């Protein structure tokens, strides 16, 4: 490929280049992996189920 000399830009081309540079001139902000994950409960909270005490069977059957 041969070297080409830059040509003079028209005012429209210069404005388009400035607009392109302002839009794409920098990289977007870095997104942290912790910001890409959303956690939700798989099932809604059930107060009746959560009221169960795991050691309750000891009181009922062993005493």
Verbal overview:
This protein has 63 residues and is mostly helical. Helices cover 40% and strands 0% of the residues. The chain has one domain (13-62). The protein contains 3 helices and no strands. Residues 22-52 are annotated as: Disordered.
> Mean pLDDT, rounded to whole units?
79
Enumerate the spans where pLDDT stays under 50 for 5 or more consecutive residues. Answer: none
The total of helices stands at: 3
Q: What is the rounded Rg?
A: 33 Å
Give the termini separation.
Answer: 93 Å
What are the main properties of this structure?
63 residues; 3 helices; mainly alpha; single chain; rod-shaped
Task: Provide a brief overview of the structure.
With 63 residues, this protein is mainly α. The chain has helices at residues 11-24, 47-50, 56-62.
SSE topology sketch:
Elements: H1 11-24, H2 47-50, H3 56-62
Region (Disordered): 22-52
């Amino acid at each position: 490929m041969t070297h080409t000399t830059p040509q003079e830009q028209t005012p429209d081309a210069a404005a388009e280049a400035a607009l392109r540079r302002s839009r794409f001139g920098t990289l977007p902000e870095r997104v942290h992996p912790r910001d890409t994950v959303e956690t939700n409960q798989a099932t809604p909270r059930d107060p009746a189920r959560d009221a169960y005490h795991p050691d309750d069977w000891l009181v009922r059957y062993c005493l």
